[in-house]
């Protein structure tokens, strides 16, 4: 399995996804592909939230005032 501590590179196609039920604390829970019992997550390191920096920017849009 790929090093789950490695810096997340969304362009890395050979990155190993992590089964949702095997994600640990501080690992990205962004589901790649279909959900359900076989759901696989990004697994990249987070800074305490549910998503890595890359996927958090997709989930939350920036507001410019």
Uncertain segments are 1-6
Structural class: little secondary structure
By DSSP, the count of extended strands is 3
* Amount of beta strand: 5-15%
Main beta-sheet strand count, sense and barrel state: 3 strands, antiparallel
Number of helices: 1
Order of SSEs, N→C? EEEH
Strand order of the largest sheet: 1-3-2
Radius of gyration: 12 Å
State the end-to-end distance. 43 Å
Report the principal-axis shape.
globular
Give the helix level as a range of percent. Answer: 10-25%
Mean pLDDT: 80
Give descriptors for this structure.
65 residues; 1 helix; disordered N terminus; globular; little secondary structure; 3 strands
Question: Can you give me a brief rundown of this structure?
Answer:
This protein has 65 residues and is mostly loops. 11% of the residues lie in helices and 9% in strands.
Explain what you see.
- The chain is 11% helix and 9% strand.
- The protein has a domain of 42 residues.
- It has 65 residues and is low in regular secondary structure.
What's the topology here?
Blueprint: E1 18-19, E2 31-32, E3 40-41, H1 53-59
Antiparallel strand pairs: 1-3, 2-3
């Amino acid at each position: 399995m790929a090093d789950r501590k490695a810096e997340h590179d969304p362009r890395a196609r050979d990155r190993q996804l992590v089964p949702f039920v095997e994600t640990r604390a501080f690992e990205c829970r962004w589901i790649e592909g279909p959900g359900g019992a076989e759901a696989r997550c990004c697994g990249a390191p987070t800074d305490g939230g549910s998503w890595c920096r890359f996927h958090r920017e997709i989930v939350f849009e920036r507001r410019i005032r």
